[in-house]
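A reminder from the course coordinator: this example appears on the midterm review sheet, so study it carefully.

Given structure:
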């Protein structure tokens, strides 16, 4: 028998607050790396035909995580392209029954777009180091805080040594209520799924522009939310990405 909690918001937001990184040392230290797959040799098998070559297929195939970035600055146009590919505003598209709808490059449950992107800018041409918010509707960056943020961020990212030279770290922050006011607790799932769509768009457009990416879930929520000025539990970072030029040629994948 299932037990339901009739609370549209608080349970999922409390879960979010209570899922700070959990350092499972044993899983990192000395444990053999095993990838698991489901395969049933007894099942009737249908071999699949080859994929027709195409640029998107190639980008998806060649994308991989990079854990060392060059200290080279990123052009502002490259950052703009990443932000627009992730969560830019297009349109308007006319809606049935009147009004219009501002499309974005990712699917969004109910078209409610719960995410906001914050950029931790280290080295971007024409942009002072600082913390910025992407105003998607205005297609502009708003200064949240000028100056160095790196010293503070170093203790917030478990992956800091991988991204300390990255010219930009993007933080996808959820305004949970935008989606949860319609979908309740289930909306929390939708928000995380949508963040995955956004991150993948950013990774693929980065790859198209010769940039590397590292998607990161290993950060301290409370501290990072405070750095960005987000009010928990209603708002919170759900995903982060380091972006820039790879320090080493993209070679063999290395599981963390
Ligand atoms: C939700 C999520 C969270 C991740 N968090 C981290 C992280 O905190 N640190 C890290 O080094 N890699 C992180 N990764 C990257 C994975 O380790 C990487 O994608 C995986 O090893 C496969 O390698 P590839 O991306 O090169 O294909 C994360 C990936 C995902 C999807």
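Designed residues:
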């Amino acid at each position: 028998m299932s037990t339901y909690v009739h609370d549209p918001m608080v349970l999922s937001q409390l879960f979010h607050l209570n899922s700070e990184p959990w350092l499972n040392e044993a899983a990192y230290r000395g444990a053999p790396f095993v990838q698991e797959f489901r395969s049933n040799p007894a099942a009737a098998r249908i071999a699949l035909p080859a994929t027709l070559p195409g640029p998107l297929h190639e980008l998806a195939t060649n994308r991989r995580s990079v854990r060392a970035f060059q200290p080279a600055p990123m052009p502002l146009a490259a950052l703009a392209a990443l932000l627009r590919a992730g969560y830019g505003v297009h349109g308007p598209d006319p809606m049935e029954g009147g009004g219009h709808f501002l499309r974005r490059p990712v699917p969004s449950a109910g078209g409610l777009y719960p995410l906001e992107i914050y950029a931790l800018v280290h080295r971007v041409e024409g942009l002072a180091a600082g913390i910025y918010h992407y105003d998607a509707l205005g297609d502009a960056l708003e200064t949240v805080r000028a100056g160095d943020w790196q010293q503070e961020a170093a203790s917030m990212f478990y992956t800091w040594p991988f991204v300390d030279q990255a010219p930009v770290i993007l933080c996808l922050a959820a305004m949970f209520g935008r989606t949860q006011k319609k979908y309740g607790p289930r909306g929390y799932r939708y928000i995380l799924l949508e963040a995955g769509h956004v991150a993948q768009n950013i990774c693929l457009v980065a790859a198209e522009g010769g940039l590397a990416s590292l998607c990161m879930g290993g950060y301290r929520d409370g501290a990072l939310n405070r750095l960005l000025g987000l009010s928990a539990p209603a708002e919170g970072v759900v995903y982060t990405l380091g972006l820039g030029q790879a320090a080493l040629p993209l070679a063999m994948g290395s599981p963390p």
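The domain at 10-15+60-240 is CATH 3.40.109.10 (NADH Oxidase). The chain has a mean pLDDT of 92.
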